[in-house]
Amino acid sequence: MYTPAITGTGVYTPEHVITNAELVEAFNAYADKMNAQNADAIAAGEMEPMDHSSEEFIVKASGIERRFVMDKTGVLDPDVMHPLLRQRSDDEPGIMTEMAVDAAKKALAQAGKTAADVDAVICAASNLERAYPAVAIEIQQALGIEGFAFDMNVACSSATFGIQAAADMVRSGSIRSALVVNPEICSAHLEWRDRDCHFIFGDVATATLIERIEDAKGPHFEILSTRCATQFSNNIRNNNGFLRRSRPDGVKDRRDMQFMQNGRKVFKEVLPMVSQHIAEHMGDNDVANTDLKRIWLHQANKTMNDFIGKKVLGRTPEDGEQPNILQDYANTSSAGSIIAFSQNSDDLDEGDIGLICSFGAGYSVGSVILRRHA
Ligand code: COA
pLDDT by residue (tens digit) across 364-374? Predict the structure, then answer.
């Protein structure tokens, strides 16, 4: 058996930023337009008018201040209200491949490695650009990696589930190393016309290189243990899929073809599930809360993270102990905890212990316990 370690991470951040102020202005213009278009039905009591969104609500309910997206022009146009991405030919790289390759190159550079050192690519994300060929294989080819690649999807937990799959393969000796990449274009599955959720998501790509610990060239994180769990729930759901054309009204502009959630229920049900999962994972590995130097959580909601941080540590986390990046990136699905890790881990000392945890649709929860070697 070999010991796996995270030797490099990388983050690709899109160029376009949407602030809450820009987002609310576009949403309110859309709501006014819809209300004017449906004035007669609203006056007759046959339809409810659309309410305005507010910056104050967004920050208070979520902690999100801005988000990066692959295209902001369509999202902010009240006549469009979704990203506009150019059509690509089959002979050019897919958009997810471009994002993932950028993040992967940064992860390889940090580890001091090249494509020749990598045996596998796992593309783990909430949404994949196409059904086949696997996006991961296109990324593998673009990077010039030999070996194999595959896609996987466990929604917001995709990165930690991918890290567990890679770490287990490294541990068993079937591969020497793997890149886990998480290109997330959440702007394309978000319903920007729905006030309850239009502020939630952003786009990004992350990459994590997992190698045998003896192959690490610089500072790295030994993977002490990983744990994944799932439990079926309809509270976060998206019904879009390849059967769409076959179903009555399938191709119509239906609300359930984008992200839907019952946010309050998610809060109530996921918090205890995650807190218990982390406590059991730490307990089974003899990691006490006093041993934990840092927690890198899934980045969906600040209140949620404050609650989990307090439960895990048994006290309110001090500044920097449980870093959030959601104020700048919003919820980037599986990539969120990896951005937090990538941007807030260099300063840890030899022997320090930290924990990555992601959670979300499924429900799903994945945790990774790490030890720093500086
Ligand atoms: N602007 C102003 N008011 C808004 C609004 C907006 N954009 N969106 C909703 N409101 C209103 C609601 O209509 C509601 O009004 P009411 O009390 O009169 O009915 C009120 O604000 C509270 O709405 P609610 O949806 O209960 O807010 P919340 O405190 O639950 O926060 C979320 C909403 C989505 C931020 C929160 O539920 C959440 O983050 N849940 C978990 C999300 C999660 O982790 N999801 C995983 C996805 S991968």
Answer: 999 999 999 99
